[in-house]
UniProtKB/TrEMBL annotation:
Species of origin: Planotetraspora mira
Gene Ontology molecular function: any one: acyltransferase activity, transferring groups other than amino-acyl groups
Native organism taxonomy: Bacteria, Bacillati, Actinomycetota, Actinomycetes, Streptosporangiales
Top-level taxon in the UniProt lineage: Bacteria
Protein's recorded name: Acetyltransferase
InterPro entries: Acyl_CoA_acyltransferase (IPR016181), GNAT_dom (IPR000182), N-acetyltransferase (IPR051531)
Record-annotated N-acetyltransferase domain positions: 16-188
A Pfam family assignment: Acetyltransf_3
């Protein structure tokens, strides 16, 4: 089971379509990962089409298992039926099968960064994940980012994720201190 989500256009921004990643997205995925700022914050950097296709296959397996719900974020052109190439990513990852909690993560490609795409897409995914979807029933979403990733902090705050704590660095996977933001289904 998968899902396709839509974000309405605003006066200054086009509509967005969120759908599972597809094999044909590999080129756009590798292009996005060439951005040094994006690579600074990600734990995985994809440098080849082969790596990107393997990553996309992993996302498909996550959907099939209901433990990693990964969306490509596409800007819609003039017609919503004809979205362009992926310009971002949102994921909801199960943290503990015995808890109704998951972690969310996101990024946007360099050419659209700062245009509100991450916050618009995260808000729709958060409402969906904490709402009526039954793939991974959730009561809480955790959002983690490096303390000095101010853009991610702004996105979290815009989407009503409350800062709960500052986490210590845990090298090598997390070399910097982090913020833990939380959103509950009661915050909807």
């Amino acid at each position: 089971m998968t899902a396709i989500l839509s974000v309405e256009p605003t006066a200054s921004a086009p509509a967005l379509r969120l759908r599972p990643w597809r094999a044909e997205d590999a080129v756009a995925l590798v292009a996005a990962h060439r951005d040094p700022l994006l690579r600074r914050w990600l734990t995985t950097s994809l440098v080849s089409d082969t790596e990107a296709r393997r990553w996309i296959d992993d996302q498909s397996e996550g959907w099939a298992a209901g433990v990693r719900l990964s969306f490509a974020v596409l800007e819609c052109g003039g017609e919503e039926r004809d979205p362009g190439r992926p310009v971002g990513h949102i994921v909801v990852k199960a943290t503990d099968p015995n808890e109704a909690a998951a972690t969310v993560g996101y990024w946007t490609s360099a050419e659209v960064r700062g245009q509100g795409i991450a916050s618009r897409a995260l808000e729709v995914v958060s409402r969906w994940a904490l709402g009526a979807q039954r793939i991974m029933p959730l009561a809480r979403l955790d959002l983690l980012h490096a303390v000095d990733n101010h853009g991610s902090c702004r996105v979290a705050e815009k989407c009503r994720y409350v800062l709960r704590s500052v986490l210590p660095a845990q090298p090598p996977a997390f070399p910097h201190k982090g913020h833990l933001h939380v959103r509950m289904n009661s915050d909807m």
